[in-house]
Amino acid sequence: QLQFVESGGALVQPGGSLRLSCKPSSGLTLQYYTVGWFRQAPGKALEGVSCINYLKEPPFDADAVSGRFTISKDNDLNTVYLQMNNLKPEDTAVYYCAGQIGATARAMCRAYPTYKAATWGQGTQVTVAA
Predict the structure, then answer these.
(1) Which residues 6+ apart lie within 8 Å of 94 measured at CB?
(2) Residue pair 71/36 in contact by the 8 Å Cβ criterion
(3) pLDDT: is 28 or 128 the higher one?
(4) Cβ atoms within 10 A of the Cβ of 79, count?
(5) How far apart are CA 16 and CA 91, in angstroms?
(6) What is the mean pLDDT of residues 28-54?
(7) With 90 as the cut, is the pLDDT of residue 55 above it?
(8) Counting Cβ atoms within 10 Å, is residue 128 exposed (0-12), middle (13-18) or buried (19+)?
(9) Cα–Cα distance between 109 and 38 in angstroms, integer?
(10) pLDDT above 70 covers what percent of the chain?
(11) In the chain, where do the E strands start and end?
């Protein structure tokens, strides 16, 4: 099963920026996977943040992060990134990566958090506070 190692989380002030990274822990190539970033804030359900598929289609961003977060995938480095700008306190959460074959970006972001076969890594903590 595809599982990721996430990194890049930190404590940052409101309005600041961070770039998260994740790579498969197994070395499996991501070239034909739809991949996404998900997050879970304290006391809240896991939610899709940004997802991108292997086709040249626009990525899907949740409304809460649209215009502030950008997902990208480097096939040569086999790494997925999440550039987060203008961070807000409500962005505080543990952020996770996931990958899935055959899904659209929108479908993965919307449905993967409740997918019974979903696998998650340890995540990376992002805390936005003054």
Answers:
(1) 9, 39, 40, 123, 124, 125, 126
(2) yes
(3) 128
(4) 18
(5) 11
(6) 94
(7) no
(8) buried
(9) 8
(10) 100
(11) 4-7, 11-12, 18-24, 34-40, 47-52, 60-61, 69-74, 79-84, 93-100, 124-128
84: tokens are: 């987060």
| Residue appearing with tokens 């943040």 | 49
88: phi > 0 → left, psi -120 to 50 → alpha, else beta; which? beta
- CB within 8 Å of 110: residues ≥ 6 apart: 48
> What mean pLDDT comes out for the span 98-106?
92
Is the pLDDT at 100 greater than 80? The verdict is yes
Which residues are within 8 A (CB) of 12 and not within 5 positions of it... i.e. 6 or more apart?
Answer: 18, 87, 126, 127, 128
Positive or negative: CA dihedral 115, 70, 85, 79: positive
